Structure prediction request, 319 residues.
Amino acid sequence: MPRSFPTNPMLAVEILGLEKTYAIGFWKKKRKDGLKSLHLEIQQGEVFGFLGPNGAGKTTTLKLLMGLISPTAGTARILNQPWHDPAVRARIGFLPEQPYFYDHLTPIELLDYYGTLSGISAPDRRLRIPKLLERVGLAGQGGTQLRKFSKGMLQRVGIAQAVLHEPEVVFLDEPMSGLDPVGRREVRNFIQSLNREGKTVFFSTHILGDAEALCHRVAVLNKGELRGISVVADLTSQNRSRFEVVWQATAAIPAMRAFGNETHVAGEVARTIVRESQLQAALEALKSQSAQLISVNPVGGSLEEYFLQKLGEPDKVPR
Prediction:
């Protein structure tokens, strides 16, 4: 869980009517709204989750804040400075959704290069880089070429790059993308450690479990529009009305899918999220299929319900 909700009156990020419209089509005469008049305030020391399905406008928002694309209208401030002010760049870190690195380099070489660009002295680089690789779960991998890394390992290198210069605000676009369960836990722990250090973390995700575990507040974005903002603790304190049923025996999958479309399979083990009213029937269905029940655990359905309510499209549940 994140540390107590910050009360620092200074805003880390202030977004004022930010809009982005794209010209599309062969003649570029059609218009598509990537972001519609976004207003948002993020406090210093807060972990803020930006939720939404693919194409919601999350990456567009982050690219605008990073100055990678220009807004059609509106403005923003980061740490009380205009978002396009070069001076603010030294105080923020950024992980794009799909980071690209020269794959002939090793993590140590790559981070040393970025550290040099950030003005970090050689002694400080030698001190920080090994510690940082250990914190993101890559201890012992510092001398391996990046071309030999998995997508999840590259993602962790990207996170290390984003915080090497010890920024005050860290922007992460889908930081859990491509990570296995162990990697996700390590990155979660790392984000929590950044928060304990007083840093502000603004990250986009479509995985509600990550947002529930890490965030003070979340915003729901869909089709370029802000649908709602809520304090996570207020949502998850409500009664839990859903359960995760884990079982072994894939023959039972068709029967379990009758209870909802949230069934996930990994090898011989499958998981289904069912409502409390369906739980007994689901367990009986497993028994009738001679499936081995592994566990039944309550899940925080309130955040999911809030998301679906604001999304207005109940079939598009984040996976």
